Amino acid sequence: MLVLVINSGSSSIKYQVREVTTSEENVAPYTSSMPAINERITLEQATLGAEGDEVLTKGLIENIGEGGEIADHSQALDVMAERLDRELNGREIDAVGHRVVHGGERFSAPVIVNNEIIRAIERLAPLAPLHNPAAALGLRAIQKKWPEMPQVVVFDTAFHRSLPEKAWRYAIPDAFYRLHGIRRYGFHGTSHDYVTGKAAEFLGVDREDFDAVIAHLGNGASVTAIRGGASIDTSMGYTPLAGLVMGTRSGDIDPSVLTGILTRNKDVDAERLDEILNKESGLTAVGGTNDMRELEQRAESGDSGAQLAMDMAAYRLAKYIGGYHVAVGGMQCLVFTAGIGENSAAFRKLVVDELSALGITLDPEANEVRSAETRVISGEDSAITVLVVPTDEERAIAEATAGLVEARIDHG
């Protein structure tokens, strides 16, 4: 099955076409709690039928919208369709899978798209004002161009719907939750879910018996506590700003600092403060760049700011890992994934050095290996296994899409 995977932004569309091989006897059963809403199918179940995967082509369409070279998402899809026809030598797409940032409290699994699903995504726009409306535009544009094309959405927040209330609730007046939906949602769920499955498989452990802490470390970063193969806590919160020190995001900060800035500085309003915290903070604010490779090089040359930025990020992450080790009742393994997690041996060492109280050690040679494969980097004497597991969110979306579409076909 050829699956077109789309990440639709407000002014760009990132796409990838993957050929997914499915097995008829392994395809997940199609179930529905209401018409065309498949919330009883987990991402893992949805991908059971997917056995093989190959990237055929990928690309990025930019400058969409007012003032751009491309008028709207419909025109962008025309451009993409022309590219795909040329690059795929006339082969036709069988289904489209979309990444959607926010599923709120409604969506806990991938779903097959209909008009009600799109309207639900649009109604969740207050929780993700930059992302959900753009995703809905992409969904409607596909509907218009290819009316019979099956579409599936995979939500970044869905994996964290298993959080217990003690983890997702904020200790603020109940009205803020009831009226405005203010609670911990968590993000990077597709990656955390995918890596959970891959790590458990690598270790030969049934997913239901798998307890771990997974650190997704890219320009955006989050860490998740996994118990019994499910998310029970995660560092990102109501928005992706919470938690770790990230490339340009501050992570956790005393809320009184923010109210103090707003009341004492007339040049900074709420919109400007949001921009500072999301785009001008984190590694960039302390070390002058969000590029971990550059920070490593500068730190090696004696740049104290670069070293401090790395130390702060590693220390924050280590504190979360230690707390989540307790939360899961003792992790079987610690997993590093995403750009920094997969590629920065220096940063992994900084983190693990902070975890010596847990008896975690690294194999120095294994830690330095660069590979696209899942691998063990812990030392022989380590009390806890440390893995590097490459993430592949597009593959997870493609496999979920193929699994759900095949299941729908097989079960009518």
TrEMBL record:
Residues annotated as binding Mg(2+): 7, 393
Keywords on record: ATP-binding, Cytoplasm, Kinase, Magnesium, Metal-binding, Nucleotide-binding, Transferase
Cofactor: record remark: Mg(2+). Can also accept Mn(2+).
Enzyme class: transferase
Protein's UniProt name: Acetate kinase
Organism per entry: Rothia koreensis
Gene that encodes it: ackA
Names of required cofactors: Mg(2+); Mn(2+)
Protein role: Catalyzes the formation of acetyl phosphate from acetate and ATP. Can also catalyze the reverse reaction.
